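Fold it.
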Amino acid sequence: MTPFVERIMFNMKAIILDLDGVICHTDEYHYLAWKAMADGLGVYFDREINNRLRGVSRMASLEIVLENYTGQLSQAEKEALAEQKNELYKESLKQMSPADLSEEVKSTLDTLRSRGYKLAIGSSSKNAPFILQQIGLGGYFDAISDGNNITRSKPDPEVFVKAAEMLCVPCAECLVVEDAVAGAQAGHAGGMRVACVGDAAAEKAGDYNLTSFRELLEVVL
């Protein structure tokens, strides 16, 4: 580890983690729910389009899905469609269990906590508390900032800034962990360092681009 990395991590006190794609994976549940809703409208929807929805709020995601819709919908109709998708998604989430939390993720989180770091979730999902409960992490995190307490989705930094406020830790002393480029951009916009996994790491969107979740332990001493 270089002296530069050691210096910028010296005052870090908290780690704010995205949920989907970082702690667990619900992409397939999202895809199937959006696909069912889109099919009902006769709108073309595929996995490539679905990938554009990662880290994006429900209503903003709906607007992306509706790019291929030629009709006109009122705001009330759009809200009903978003709720329809969410009900399909929530029903599928009931299948989740602690088996959906990998040993690598859980052991890494436990080690970070043992090192004295505050841990928070920063997710655009309104279902974050339910998902955490399903996978055995209900009550585990020091704070949860999610779609229930924000008005702007990533790449706006609101979700991460609010998480830092909940933790009573300055943004400059927080590390964000993300798998989506929009999420990495949000972390940087909030004045935070960003560690990326998955697609965002492949795009080199973070200050630290990891090949596994466990590598966080090499960044965070």
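Strands lie at 14-17, 118-122, 143-145, 174-178, 193-196, 208-209.
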